[in-house]
Design a protein that fits this description.
alpha+beta; 26% helix; binds iron/sulfur cluster; 143 residues; single chain
């Protein structure tokens, strides 16, 4: 995996994202994660989904600034498709603090799905209707 930026002391994806290979669900810390910036306790042996995945910020999306690092915003950005990004909230209310970030992504041509800790996901951008249909399908699968 080649990344444009460094995670530094961030490890927020190890809480926010689900990893079935562990297994762990969304929004709960992985038992192998340091929550204080020390990284992954099984880094050399971490499962393939952890090896192969990187967030949109660390991949170097030009619409995301250095200050948008996930542990600072409380929001992890996942690439869902060619022009589709989902923003996953790590703590309630974090999405309210990233309105400008969302505007930058939409101005760059991305459709952005907003996934709160609680409540209904939504989407903004040129392909928002398609994104909302996909989110509704995912919601049904999770029930
Ligand atoms: S959320 Fe992004 S920056 Fe933070 S640890 Fe995961 S990949 Fe690195
Ligand atoms: S195994 Fe390591 S990289 Fe994967 S979620 Fe857990 S702490 Fe993060």
């Amino acid at each position: 995996m080649t990344t444009a930026r460094s995670c530094g002391s961030c490890s927020l994806c190890c809480k926010v994202m689900a990893v079935s290979a562990i297994p762990k669900g969304r929004g709960v810390w992985c038992p192998h994660a340091s929550q204080t910036g020390a990284g992954c306790a099984i880094y050399a042996d971490r499962p393939a989904p952890c090896r192969n995945w990187s967030c949109v910020w660390v991949s170097g999306h030009p619409a995301l600034l250095e200050a948008d690092r996930p542990d600072k915003t409380g929001v992890v950005a996942n690439r869902d498709g060619a022009r589709q990004i989902s923003l996953h909230e790590s703590r309630s209310g974090a999405l309210e603090g990233v309105a400008e970030l969302v505007n930058r992504l939409v101005a760059a041509g991305e459709t952005v799905s907003l996934i709160p800790v609680a409540g209904r996901p939504t989407a903004v951008g040129a392909e928002a209707d398609e994104a909302r249909r996909r989110l509704a399908r995912l919601e049904k699968l999770r029930r």
